[in-house]
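Lab meeting, action items carried over

1. Structure of the two-component assembly. Owner: GW. Status: complete.
Input record:
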Amino acid sequence: MKKLESAEDLLKFRDRSRAEIDLREGSKDILLTVHMGTCGIAAGARDVLATIVEELGAAGISRAGVQQTGCVGLCDQEPMLTVTDKSGAFFRYGRLDRAKTREIILNHVLRGTVVNEYLIKD
Amino acid sequence: MHDLSLHLLDLLENSIAAGSSIVAIELRVDPDADRLRLVVDDDGSGLTAQPDEALNPFYTTKSHKHVGLGLSLLQAAAEQSGGSMSIGSSPELGGARVDVSMRLSHIDRPPIGNLAATVSTMVSAHPQVEFRGRFGWEDQNVDFSTRRDLNLEDPIAASMEAYKILNASFKCPE
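Predicted assembly:
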């Protein structure tokens, strides 16, 4: 884990941990993280998050948690979405738009089927 | 960045990263004076660097990267639109203040964009933070607070409600 160097680091760590605890302890089944650094925002992260909100709202799903984080250094893959399941496994999707995000919500979040086509390849 | 509402989203992310619990946004559009002014105040930890340093695109407080483009991109947008940007302390909330002005009719001024989408985006992931919005243009004067005007129990529903309220109450110019 990265060393905590300031009060802000501590607050960020608290928020992240809270989301992870929700996931582990059962109030949430799946965690959706949108990367909202300057690069993500410029590439369209707001549309990705808005699509997630619309789709979760329309489907009435409360078992999915939504959180934002900053740039993870893969700026050319923005806008990105990381889906983390209860086991702690995470799936990082890249170069998204509204249609691809909708597809991920419908398939991965609702049906549990990973959308391989949009995963970021190492 | 395509428009001002995306620059604003980036500023709000900075406020969150500084541990803010209140963030106040003020947008005034004054066609008579040909000015547009956007001010963001927060009660976070404030600037950890000198203002000049924070505006340097090769300065960042983050350890895993070498550039910090957000503020410098907005400063460039302000200056190319016949305006300016200053950063410092918030007199009202005690954290940081970013104050941007632009010439409203300048051909290079970015469009204002979708303010409702920016605020609702922040509500969905940070319901614990109070976002205050004061938007003014012609006879429209919006005074909005996420804590006062929304039921924040369900962040997804609150985010959709925020979008609906702001979209209906403020029609901003291009």
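2. GW to write a short summary for the group page. Key points so far: The mean pLDDT of chain A is 87. The two ends of chain A are 22 Å apart (CA to CA).
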